[in-house]
Amino acid sequence: MLAVRGIYRGREGMWAWLLHRVTGVGVLFFLLIHILDTALVGFGPELYNHAIGLYRMPAFRVMEVVLAGSVLYHALNGVRITLIDFWDKAVKWNRQLFYGEVVLFFVLFLPSAYMMLRPVFFGGH
Questions:
Q1: What's the structural domain count of the chain?
Q2: Which domain holds residue 9?
Q3: What's 93's domain CATH number?
Q4: How is 53-122 classified by DSSP, letter by letter?
Q5: pLDDT > 90: what percent of the chain?
Q6: Which helix (H) or strand (E) holds 12?
Q7: How far is CA 60 from CA 20, 54, 55, 70, 117, in A?
Q8: What is the pLDDT of residues 74-90, one digit of tens each?
Q9: At 11, is the secondary structure helix, strand, or coil?
């Protein structure tokens, strides 16, 4: 039990813990906004279409990339946490698992972010 408590005291474990909470709250915030904007359809198609049109603005595109990164990090970190919870030896590998997660995050996120932001910076749809 002592080794498990030591994971979240600074360094990689603390960053993983903090980022997991921040990304979780960010995804929750998005879901609340999504529920509200979808509810606008009940007030007429003009209001709904106006709200959806806002999402095509460059600032919203950037926030969409942040959302995708948040979901990806949260999911990858959830897998790391599950490994630690169900595999006793994973506690000893926490640091390596975290750095592996970070590398995998960037390998998956950077091409996705490029594809999502390409229309904002280079035109097109």
A1: 1
A2: 2-122
A3: 1.20.1300.10
A4: HHTTSHHHHHHHHHHHHHHHHHHHHHHHHHHHHH-GGGGTTHHHHHHHHHHHHHHHHHHHHHHHHHHHHH
A5: 65
A6: helix 11-39
A7: 22, 7, 5, 15, 11
A8: 999 999 999 999 988 88
A9: helix
